[in-house]
Amino acid sequence: MGSNYKSSGPVTLSEEQILALQEKLARMRHDVVGRLANITAAAELIRLRPEKTEERLRLLLEQPHQAADCINQFSQEFEAFFGLTRL
Question: How many Å separate Cα 86 from the centre of its chain?
Answer without folding.
Answer: 19
